[in-house]
Recover the amino acids of this structure.
């Protein structure tokens, strides 16, 4: 139990420092039974609660809005079991994603999810928010890989569905409701998930391209020629790399130090980070080599570097994974995470840049402007764009320029206003841009049915 | 509208001829709007309906129990759209699975599901029953690959969730409830599904093995060494192959004709059919060759044949896919489809064989015995066993010998009493062997909420 004002801060505030609650009480149960007792009590007394995992969410879903009680799963962090013959892994909700993957690595397996926040986020939170991340292209969504869940419902009932079967067609697949429910239907306390064999050979290519059209062409070729070994295909625009360069303070993979000894600034309009994972190194190398020959030959790609050694791999990944933090370096960031058809995906970034310029809100040099720059990057393979608007301060005028503009753009192109970040507090009122009235009614029905007193993560989601 | 007694037979009876209803009316709507109007009317008048796809189900889920109105999706069979850049495919529920896959083949893509009944079953029925089939090992379950659904609810409301996004975290993933709901929550009228690139190279190995332990060992090696190109790993016991040999009347792939000119009888205790699918023929061939050298070298496998040509591939598959029909050749079949931990999987078949022998119910020679033989086969990679009890007649004594014996065995080993066939009419009363009281209550709650008058596929599922 945490009640000390100083200790409460970390639980009341999200990592972007954008959402701050006023909770006076954090509970850290150690067992599912304790979670059950807490919820039964809170439900009876109609006390609102916020389930919290690693608190790495990006939409204000994991912190209180007012003085809700925080229920943190941080003290539930045991690995329950791992079956080597089937690859089925059972963990407490509070296990850190990276710790889970490190454990699996020793057994020759891999967690079918990877994301920038892996060092802090919890597996339970990943499932509750249906995290997508970097390996979705290869291993699919959590709706496919999660085999079972243990969930405590609002009234304290424990739903033990910690199944360890790849196939089970006996009744509605209840666990699916909780994947992506963001703590609004119950608190996930345990996860059973299928973990594939860890690839024996991993390659990364970091490429420079001259247009967004070339990025798309490069993806089509990669999907066809690298097919079963393609495990990530990420794109980054120039501005995102320039931001990262300022923050990482190392030489960009496609730059040399210039004559003055200063790192050059990344200059290609677009970059691609492409990963292959397979079982046979020579085959993977040959496939990648042939692919690179093809895309460099027809000038889809104009520059590139390839890496196979673990340290180099990690360094290359920082130029993709470091963008999130780099976007915050001037004071703050407005983050949008949308699904869009591939061909219209980048035009959202261009439209936003143009709009901010036109409204005279944005400049990389003039420090009196609230916006530094809007950058775009993301998972081409999943049709998922991240639009980060790096700002010098959070500002109502900027917000009005961005919303509902971004959501209207996405809705017009039949996209999703939240591809992987969820709804949380930020997007609660915008669900209508992505879902129909019938769907929204059905979602509300389910919420009301399972949490009639509305104690679970209120003021959010729906 | 079909009301003619003769024409009604095909809709009243399942393909095993085990379940027969007395419906006097079959409706074949052509549009979602018509389905909506039919359901709105039936709901108001409290008329029970049975949604029916290709009527290839194995648990009596798609035929009436009494005189329910059959709503067939057979006249809703248009391909709505296919997007080559993303692989997203939208179809009416009544499109035949094989027709869908043939269409996709021309575009260089593949339907992420394949099963023996592909020539008759409908895509909508596949989704409604969460069909698993032969490619699950590679492409995962429909919970991962289905992106959107159009569903008509009991009161006629159309839930249009025909999304074409790989990622969308805006609200509960409602479509998941309908995947595997067997027509008990609504009628699926449209499906949006992600279809991967069609592999350019396909190989099949058909292997003979001396024990079930060797089958497991062979699978572990295949998963590790063939890894990303392994697309099916099926096992069949000797008795299943002898049944198939009687029915197919061709030479078994691991037999030669003997001196009398008669086909020899398959003699290895176990057989494995293993498929690889990849993008680069030479690499796949080399991987398979190295794998075979290893498993033949250490005597995991004692005999085998490899095939790469389309006709040979199909022939080899018939020895796996033909077992279902072969099991019926003496009069009928009791089919069980269970998930079990790999190491105890085959012991169910042995236990049933022993039990039937002990009760003096089974003989391949003595035609006065009701049971011909119990055979086992299935998807090792998915932990999914098919147990077929081939009988000369459907018989109460045999049923009492099998049930609840089989379900108790499965429950004791924490398996599922229905891995992929569903509950339907056959297993409605046995769900308690696989699901907890809390889960069953939640399933009933959902059913009552969405279908308060109980008009959708009554007397089944739950």
């Amino acid at each position: 139990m945490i009640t000390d004002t100083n200790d409460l801060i970390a639980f009341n505030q999200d990592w972007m420092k954008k959402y701050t609650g006023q909770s006076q009480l954090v509970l850290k149960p150690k067992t599912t039974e304790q979670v059950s007792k807490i919820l039964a009590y809170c439900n009876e007394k109609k006390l609102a609660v916020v389930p919290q995992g690693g608190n790495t969410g990006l939409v204000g879903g994991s912190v209180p809005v007012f003085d809700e009680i925080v229920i943190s799963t941080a003290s539930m962090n045991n690995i329950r079991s791992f079956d080597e013959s089937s690859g089925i892994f059972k963990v407490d909700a509070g296990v850190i994603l990276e710790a889970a993957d490190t454990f699996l690595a020793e057994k020759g397996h891999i967690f079918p999810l990877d994301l920038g926040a892996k060092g802090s986020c919890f597996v339970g939170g990943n499932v509750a928010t249906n995290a997508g991340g970097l390996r979705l292209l290869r291993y699919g969504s959590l709706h496919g890989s999660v085999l079972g869940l243990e969930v405590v419902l609002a009234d304290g009932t424990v739903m033990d569905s910690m199944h360890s079967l790849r196939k089970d067609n006996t009744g509605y697949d209840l666990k699916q409701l909780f994947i992506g429910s963001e703590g609004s239907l119950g608190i996930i306390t345990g996860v059973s998930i299928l973990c594939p064999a860890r690839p024996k050979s991993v390659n990364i290519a970091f490429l420079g391209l001259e247009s967004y059209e070339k990025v798309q062409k490069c993806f089509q070729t990669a999907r066809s020629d690298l097919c079963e070994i393609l495990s990530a295909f990420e794109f980054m625009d120039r501005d995102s790399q320039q931001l990262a360069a300022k923050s990482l303070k190392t030489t960009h993979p496609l730059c040399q130090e210039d004559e003055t000894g200063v790192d050059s600034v990344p200059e290609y309009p677009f970059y691609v980070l492409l990963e292959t994972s397979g079982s046979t190194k020579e085959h993977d190398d040959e496939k990648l080599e042939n692919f690179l020959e093809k895309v460099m030959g027809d000038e889809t790609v104009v520059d590139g570097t390839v890496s196979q050694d673990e340290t180099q791999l990690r360094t290359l990944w920082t130029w993709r994974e470091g963008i999130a933090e780099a976007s915050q370096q001037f004071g703050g960031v407005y983050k949008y995470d949308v699904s869009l058809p591939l061909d219209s995906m980048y035009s959202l970034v261009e439209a936003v840049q143009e709009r901010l310029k036109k409204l005279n809100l944005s400049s990389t040099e003039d420090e009196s402007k609230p916006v530094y720059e809007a950058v775009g990057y993301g998972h081409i393979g999943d049709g998922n764009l991240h639009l980060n608007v790096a700002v010098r301060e959070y500002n109502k005028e900027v917000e009005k320029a961005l919303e509902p503009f971004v959501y209207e753009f996405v809705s017009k192109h039949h996209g999703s206003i939240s591809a992987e970040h969820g709804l949380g507090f930020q997007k609660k009122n915008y669900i209508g841009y992505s879902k129909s009235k019938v769907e929204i009614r059905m979602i509300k029905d389910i919420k009301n049915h399972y949490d009639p007193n509305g104690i679970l993560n209120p003021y959010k989601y729906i």
